[in-house]
Amino acid sequence: MRRIAISILAPVLALVLGCATNPATGKRQLNFYSEAQEIAMGREADAQITAQLGLVDDPALQAYVSDLGKRLAAESERPNLPWSFKVVDDAVVNAFALPGGFIYVTRGILAHMRSEAELASVLGHEIGHVTAQHSVNQMSKQQIAMGGLLVGMIAVPEVAQAGDLAQAGLGLLFLKYGRDDERQADDLGLRYMVDTGFETREMPKMFGVLEGVGEIAGGGRIPNWLASHPEPGLRRERSTRLIAERGYPPGEVGAERFLRRTEGLVFGDDPRQGFFEKGVFYHPELAFRLDFPAGWKAANERSRVVAVHPDQIAMVELRLAREASAAAAADAFLRQEGLTPGRAERLRVNGLAGVAAPFEVPRQTGSSIAGRAVFVELGERVFRLMGLAVAEQASRVRGDIGRFLDGFARLTDRDKLDVRPQRLALVELPRAMSFEEFLRRHPSEADARVLALINGVEDPAASLPAGTLLKRIVGERRGD
Ligand SMILES: [Zn+2]
Hints:
The protein has 18 helices and 22 strands. The chain has helices at residues 35-53, 59-74, 107-112, 116-131, 134-145, 147-155, 157-162, 166-171, 179-196, 202-217, 225-228, 232-246, 255-262, 326-334, 394-406, 414-417, 435-441, 448-454, and strands spanning 18-21, 28-31, 84-88, 95-98, 102-106, 266-267, 275-277, 280-283, 288-291, 297-300, 305-308, 314-320, 340-341, 345-349, 352-361, 369-378, 381-390, 409-410, 422-428, 433-434, 463-464, 469-474. It folds into 3 domains: 7-262, no CATH class; 271-417, Mog1/PsbP, alpha/beta/alpha sandwich (Protein Transport Mog1p, Chain A), CATH 3.40.1000; 422-474. Strands 10, 11, 12, 13, 14, 15, 16 and 17 form an 8-stranded antiparallel β-sheet that branches. The chain has a 4-stranded antiparallel β-sheet with strand order 7-8-9-18, with no helix packed on it. The chain has a 3-stranded mixed β-sheet with strand order 3-5-4, sandwiched between helices. It is α+β, with helices and mostly antiparallel strands. The structure holds zinc ion. Residues 125, 129, 177, 182, 185, 229 line the site of zinc ion (ZN).
């Protein structure tokens, strides 16, 4: 758990405005950045993503995705960029690209794919965004649009980070491209697939999977590929038509190789990184539990756990402090510019040593913010619990915030400490059977629609031949 760095938004003071030729399209276009700046920007954001989302701890899988991405990128118009391809430890179905050639797929999107060629179609699309410099252009536009917010973030970093603005940092990664950019990235991706020898018909299949994810989620979890991309159904139809018109020769699918590589991948949210059950947040790795206010909108963002009051008048947040003791952390916290510090006092929270630090954040316009941070020591770590409320409304939420600040405790419940994530496992059908029969013989604690989707099964009653490799999900489903 680390702080969200926002420095990517701040620099680039000297924008070199010029006109350059787009390497992928050959057209002249307005370009804010030199290639060196583009790479530097990508590299800085890459460090943040790696720290904030974390990478899947599976060197063989990382190498596999990286090798495949590099083969595709070698066929692109910018083979000499420092291309990098990483699998981030996130259950959301997503893939994204940063300027300079830094590309990510989530373990969530991998779990939904069925072949190497499907993976190639997604990586190829993201490579297309980089080669056509969509992300650079979008980034400069967005950077300008967010200039106003930045001033506030720099002035009161801790408080700004605690608010909705913190999302702006990550928001940059989920750039929304225009329809033309998306079509262009699809076309470029298709070209890289063909040049690398992959089966192009796997591309529309991948769009079908994304369509299915959208239908099951009902537009639920964002931000993801679906939120930042146009209707996958339209892209499926368009790519099917293009591929049929052009009559590409059959290429490599690589289904078995892909499935064997991704076997054992964590499926869904990993409860070891923390999970909610009946309003209580449990963190097995860090061995603590914490009560959250009922009815507040909570999110586990890995670098912090946060909950916002339904009327948005208050929020509570938990994160790790960097200092070695609660006293040192409270001291550093209260010294920040932009805070009016109250008097720190020692206390005990469920038997753990801590320091409470009340404070206020005066604002030039509108009501000031009343805050209270409590620093608690557990093992080698110092945790920071913080409650913030619009000062005029603070009395409405005092009870909720108080229970949160008092609710941190060591986790001793074995059942919670030993929780394991669900994982993908493969079954090779010993004889022909329907998907329905497969589900009965190899049950999974998961939605049957999700299981059909990740296996590419359209008709669960239809017979599948012996030898078919199917995915199941093993392990207990936890969290709510
Ligand atoms: Zn895209």
